[in-house]
Write a structure and sequence with these properties.
Radius of gyration of chain A: 24 Å
Helix content of chain A: 55-70%
Number of strands of chain B: 2
Largest sheet of chain B: 2 strands, antiparallel
Bound molecules: protoporphyrin IX containing FE
CATH architecture of the largest domain in chain A: Up-down Bundle
Oligomer: heterodimer
Largest interface: A-B, 54 and 52 residues
Distance between the termini of chain B: 12 Å
Shape of chain A: globular
CATH superfamily of the largest domain in chain A: Cytochrome Bc1 Complex, Chain C
Number of helices of chain A: 16
CATH class of the largest domain in chain A: Mainly Alpha
Structural class of chain B: mainly alpha
Order of helices and strands of chain B: HHHHHHHHHEEHHHHHH
Chain lengths: 404, 315
């Protein structure tokens, strides 16, 4: 049995029982971060903060929201927006954060791709990140159902319908997901459960996994330099903080994280109060009406690129392409055959691949929202084919890459 | 080594703005028909050429033109001939009270609605006298004098009894111009008036039944029940609503909703009423927003200073 002595202070008392000093070292003061990183490495912290905003605002909304097809729209648009003090504020924070979190996720993902931060022991960071992306997507979709507006209803209808299309013909599955033939009470209640319980739990667990996956390989740096963390941290602890290539997570790196978070919050609150229309779609302020199909049905902006990969093809091919787009990012660490974990700018063809992929996904995003007519459907088709070709070409491009 | 952060920031911001522009302003400009506002000039209607005489107008309104046979004018002590539900059963909709019509409707529009309602209301696709489909508001064919003069007299009379245009309240504008067709449940407004707080459930239900009866007639008249407008300021936005009431046909060709002919000022009041219903907290949002942004800037400055202090020894 461990030996306990009379505590000399509260800290000592806790330390004997929880080893807080060791924990503090492992997680903060001696969690070594490369010095040579830019503000893109603060996006992880920005995501953590945005998730906290979602969690807190969501808890407040949950106190008044009614998961009932008759009352849901009213509880959101009357009770929360008009009756409850500052209910509108929580709703705007929640809605805008749900949209902005995807902007930051995409920046975070493309940062990882650009700097090759998914290889050399960082594969689990990447995979856990992609799992976060998938659960966040499910979380956003289920949340979008809750106000039970026109877009909630019709997006729910169209997306769940995907399984019944073409060769899949899984009508039974669609019914099972909906709990009914059409989106109705059973559908709303189960998406409510997913949104406020199961998925947030999964996200919190996955964030834990993501952070754990970071601890051993450490984060990458902006020159892809291999750092001897042992030697550099000794240098730092010996007092040569300026000469060492590493810094403490806290307070060194944290102070920079917090600075970036500070600037992010100015942008975020500007959107919350003055520019929220992109996140709270106007069409969803019409109550759900199963008899009135809206003129244009489109998903939220962050789903548009994958939606557009489904749309320009015939049903069966579209479904295959859509499935491909959903899983392909997870496989990135294995499709990239080059051992170089350096910035794309030093990786020849991969540099081209990176920028073409980024632009292609923006084009897909735009075409996914525009009506699929005339020139837009042609551009959409070409962009979708390009997306597939890019991923098929990746192993070949990277296999012959020179050592950087 | 050179600091790449400014360049990275520019790249991130540029791609973000490009994506935003494509999926928001650009996509919406492609998806939605763009209708320019004509500033409620009603250029298709003839200007009034005669100067009206309110006293002569009064006699016509109460007498030969029989306006009060269908419309109440409470200000002039003329109550409605029937209650709203019976009026809707006869005409399809309850003809609005004309007490403040002179302040809410455009003068050219008033003149035109008196002689040719289907034309002024832009519902000639539904009502065509030559095919025997009469508009429920009977056109005024003249009382023996010069038609244009008589019409000008009636318009002058309606203007003389109405409140001053700057005294039109949002509620007054809405109830006159839209209230007979559109409920606004978040403001307790029904097509037959504001629903009072009843002491007994029985009375409340009796009121609801009257509303349902009214809506039944209205649905028959319009082809569908006009939507509840509680959240329309958020679902359609100010520009759409304003250009829609100016000329519904420009947005929805063949729609049964009439052009109501309000003045530009009255249209603003209608919008304000809808904002009070569906965007109640807009003033609070603006003022709280300003404070939060100031706080965020101060926070960012302190964060920046802290970072500088911590990193002093790291370079
Ligand atoms: C809300 C969800 C997420 C949170 C809270 C989060 C948080 C973090 C944090 C705090 C870091 C360390 C600091 C940094 O490099 O930014 C990090 C690193 C990383 N994340 Fe995430 N992340 C999330 C989602 C994702 C997603 C969707 C991906 C992409 C698949 C991803 C991939 C990575 C990678 C590759 C790194 C390592 C970067 C490096 O080594 O340089 N993360 N994440």
């Amino acid at each position: 049995m461990a030996h306990f002595t009379k505590a000399t202070s509260v800290k000592d008392w806790l330390n004997q029982r929880l080893a807080i000093e060791t924990v503090e070292k492992v997680m903060a003061s001696e969690y070594w971060i490369p010095k040579n990183i830019n503000f893109l490495w603060a996006m992880g912290m920005v995501l953590a903060i945005t998730f906290s905003l979602l969690l807190v605002s969501g808890i407040f909304l949950l106190m008044y929201y009614q998961p009932d097809v008759k009352d849901a729209f009213y509880s959101v648009n009357y009770t929360i927006m008009r009756d409850v003090d500052y209910g509108w504020l929580w709703r705007h924070i929640h809605g805008v954060a749900a949209s902005v979190v995807f902007l930051i996720i995409y920046i975070h993902m493309f940062t990882g791709i650009y700097y090759g931060s998914y290889k050399k022991g960082r594969e689990m960071i990447w995979v856990s990140g992609m799992l976060l992306f998938v659960t966040f997507s499910a979380e956003a979709f289920s949340g979008y159902m809750l106000p039970w507006g026109q877009m909630s209803y019709w997006a729910g209808m169209v997306i769940t319908n995907i399984f019944s299309l073409g060769g899949l013909h899984l009508d039974g599955l669609v019914e099972w997901i909906r709990g009914d033939y059409v989106p109705a009470q059973a559908f709303l209640t189960r998406f409510f459960m997913l949104h406020v319980l199961l998925l947030p739990l999964a996200i919190m667990g996955l964030i834990g996994l993501h952070f754990a996956a970071l601890r051993i390989p450490h984060v990458n740096n902006q020159d892809g330099e291999e750092i001897d963390f042992e030697a550099e941290s000794k240098k730092y602890l010996a007092g040569d903080t300026a000469g060492s290539k590493v810094i403490r997570f806290a307070n060194d790196f944290m102070s920079k994280d917090l600075m970036v978070v500070g600037f992010f919050l100015i942008f975020f609150f500007y959107l919350v109060f003055f520019q929220y229309g992109f996140a709270l779609d106007p069409v969803n302020f019409d109550p759900a009406d199963g008899l009135k199909t809206p003129a244009h049905i489109y998903p939220e902006w962050y789903f548009l690129w994958s939606y557009e990969i489904l749309r320009p093809f015939s049903v069966n091919i579209g479904l295959v392409a859509f499935g491909f787009a959903q899983v392909i990012f997870v496989l990135l660490p294995w499709l990239d055959r080059s051992p170089n974990a350096v910035p794309a700018s030093r990786r020849g063809m991969f540099k081209v691949w990176f920028w073409v992929l980024l632009v292609d996904m923006i084009v897909l995003t735009a075409m996914g929202k525009l009506p699929p007519e005339g020139i837009f459907s042609t551009i959409g088709l070409v962009a979708a084919l390009l997306f597939i070709v890019l991923w098929i070409a990746l192993p070949f491009i990277t296999k012959n890459e020179k050592k950087a | 080594m050179k600091n790449k952060e400014p360049l990275i920031l520019v790249v991130v911001v540029a791609f973000t703005l490009l994506t935003y522009w494509l999926v928001e302003p650009y996509a919406h400009s492609v998806m939605h028909k763009h209708v320019e506002s004509q500033n409620f000039a009603y250029a298709d209607l003839k200007p009034l050429t005669k100067t009206g005489n309110a006293a002569a107008g009064k006699d016509l309104v109460m007498g030969a033109a029989a306006c009060t046979g269908c419309h109440s004018i409470e200000k002039a002590g003329m109550p409605s001939a029937m209650d709203a539900v019976s009026a809707a059963a006869s005409y399809g909709v309850n003809p609005p009270d004309l007490s403040n019509a002179g302040a809410i409707y455009d003068a050219k529009f008033l003149a035109d609605v008196i002689v040719n309602p289907a034309h002024a209301l832009k519902v000639e696709h539904k009502f065509d006298a030559s095919k025997g489909k009469m508009h429920p508001m009977a056109p005024f064919a003249g009382a023996g004098g010069e038609l244009e003069q008589e019409v000008a007299d009636m318009v002058a009379y309606l203007q003389s009894i109405a409140v001053k245009p700057d005294q039109v309240t949002p509620k007054m504008a809405y109830e006159n111009a839209c209230g007979r067709c559109h409920s606004v449940s978040y403001e307790k407004w029904t097509q037959i008036g504001e629903k009072p707080a009843f002491k007994f459930e029985k009375d409340s239900l009796a009121f609801d039944i009257k509303v349902l009866e009214y809506q039944e007639s209205l649905t028959k008249y319009m082809g569908k029940l006009p939507p509840d407008l509680s959240m329309y300021i958020r679902s359609r936005g100010e520009h759409f609503i304003s250009t829609f009431i100016e000329n519904p046909q420009a947005h929805l060709e063949g729609t049964a909703m009439p052009r109501v002919g309000v003045t530009a000022d009255a249209a603003h009041k209608v919008i304000e009423y809808l904002e009070d219903a569906g965007d109640t907290k807009r003033h609070e949002r603006a003022s709280v927003g300003k404070m939060v942004l100031i706080f965020s800037v101060v926070f960012a400055i302190f964060a920046l200073l802290w970072k500088k202090q911590v990193w002093k020894n790291l370079h």
